[in-house]
Amino acid sequence: MHYYKILLWVSSLLVSNILCAKTELPSNKSQFINLFNTKVGSYQLVSGDAKMCASGALALLDENEPDLGFKLGDEIIFNNLHHGTQTNKVANFCLVTTKYKYTTQSITMSLRHTRCENEVDNLDTSQTLRFISPTTLTYSVENSDVLCQFELQR
Description:
The protein is an alpha+beta fold. The chain has helices at 2-20, 29-37; strands at residues 41-47, 56-60, 69-72, 76-79, 85-89, 95-102, 106-114, 123-133, 136-141, 147-152. The chain has a ten-stranded antiparallel sheet with strand order 4-3-2-1-10-9-8-7-6-5, with helices on one face.
């Protein structure tokens, strides 16, 4: 009988931890667009580099074509939303590979420029937009000091 009480207590503890944890789960593009549509609006920069992360509107590039992407202000752009990985040859430039990862709270776009005519144009980076709360979001660029926080203006 004692073991059943311990098992019940441990089970209750595990369930409460699972329910209290705010987990970022995998998602898909259409679920992310639905989340995005609840976050559209004007955002004020709270912290971070104002040159890279200026205040502005979070909006789709074209409301009738959500696959075209979205932007936050004039500097932060996530374009050509798609599933998986896509590689395109840009004439007189490079092979450009994009990959999107959608979660229940964020989007990450990995960008790679390879086989560029000018070696300095080769690039491998990613950028993430994460919804922290109903009114707060962050933007970051991998392997850089770019980390900006925005607050929705009401």
